[in-house]
């Protein structure tokens, strides 16, 4: 009986060690999986989603994150989706736009640091110079207030309008320096409406989607110097998701800066860091 008991004890001990080993392997695998944090990010197709795709394919896994990228073609839905927790973060907007929209909707969001600038430019399929704008001509301009003010400041730089010294800058408050008609258009439609106007001020991401580039096609291009309209990552206030902090870090990495400079060599996108 003693020998049998001893043998049984050895068998039980061996089995326990085997089970202990299996449990250790499983825990290690789970720990490895826990290190990868999945986050869902909303983005405009170009350049935002392209930059995120570059990160996902080249930098994300080794930095412990995985991105689920959802593309949006407008400037309204990404913030609504972030507020409703359908997204963990979004990457499409500027701080002036966020500052204008958040109080109106009661959104409590936190902006990251500037990643890149997509300079506005004045484009035309009919004219070679803004001074060729005919009397009674048509100028296409975005219809959302923040980007419209930005576009009007570019038209002022081009000598077509004078902006007020204070107060809101809109098509109703500027002073035209030439007789022409403003045509308000939703951002995604601006490039498509280029044939129907003489000039249009088009945001960088919408211009890129239409194959337009500031250095190549722009008649007047927005300056990047001291420009507040840099694009940034945005997330819900107080969100402690470690994946968001890691993505914010990667968006400002040397690899992303190099990717931007090499991918958009015609000045469509300029690193802001």
Distance separating the two termini: 78 Å
CATH superfamily of the largest domain: Periplasmic binding protein-like II
Q: Describe the largest sheet.
A: 6 strands, mixed
Strand order of the largest sheet: 2-1-3-12-4-13
Q: Give the rounded overall mean pLDDT.
A: 89
Total count of domains: 2
Structural class: alpha/beta
- What is the class of the largest domain in the CATH system? Alpha Beta
Order of helices and strands: HEHEHEHEEEHEEEEHHEEHHE
Uncertain ranges: 1-33
Reported by name, the CATH topology of the largest domain is: D-Maltodextrin-Binding Protein, domain 2
Report on the structure:
The chain has 273 residues and is α/β, with parallel strands linked by helices. It is built from nine helices and 13 strands. It has two domains: 129 residues, D-Maltodextrin-Binding Protein, domain 2, CATH 3.40.190.10; 101 residues, Periplasmic binding protein-like II (D-Maltodextrin-Binding Protein, domain 2), CATH 3.40.190.10. The strands form three sheets. The chain has a six-stranded mixed sheet, with helices on both faces. Strands 9-6-10-5-11 form a five-stranded mixed sheet. Strands 7-8 form a two-stranded antiparallel ribbon. Helix 2 links the parallel strand 1 and strand 2. The N terminus is likely disordered.
């Amino acid at each position: 009986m003693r020998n049998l008991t001893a043998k049984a004890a050895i068998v039980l001990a061996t089995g326990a060690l085997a089970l202990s080993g299996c449990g250790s392997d499983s825990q290690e695998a789970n720990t490895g999986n826990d290190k990868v944090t999945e986050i869902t990010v909303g983005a405009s197709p170009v350049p935002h989603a392209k930059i995120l795709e570059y990160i996902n394919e080249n930098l994300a896994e080794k930095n412990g994150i995985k991105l689920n990228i959802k593309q949006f073609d407008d400037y309204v839905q990404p913030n609504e989706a972030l507020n409703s927790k359908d997204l963990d973060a979004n990457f499409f907007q500027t701080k002036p736009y966020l500052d204008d929209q958040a109080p109106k909707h009661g959104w409590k969001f936190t902006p990251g640091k500037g990643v890149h600038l997509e300079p506005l430019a004045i484009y035309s399929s009919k004219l070679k110079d803004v001074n060729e704008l005919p009397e009674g001509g048509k100028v296409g301009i975005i219809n959302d207030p923040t980007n419209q003010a930005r576009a009007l400041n570019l038209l002022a730089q081009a000598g077509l309008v004078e902006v007020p010294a204070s107060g809101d800058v809109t098509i109703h408050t500027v002073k035209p320096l030439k007789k022409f008609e403003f045509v308000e258009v939703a951002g995604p439609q601006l490039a498509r409406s280029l044939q129907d106007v003489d000039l249009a001020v088009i945001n960088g991401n919408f211009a890129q989607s239409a194959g337009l580039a500031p250095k190549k096609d722009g008649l007047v291009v927005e300056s990047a110097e001291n420009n507040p309209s840099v694009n940034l990552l945005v997330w819900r206030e107080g969100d402690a998701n470690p994946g968001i902090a890691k993505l914010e870090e990667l968006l400002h990495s040397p690899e992303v800066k190099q990717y931007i400079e090499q991918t958009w060599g015609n000045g469509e996108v300029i690193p802001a860091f």
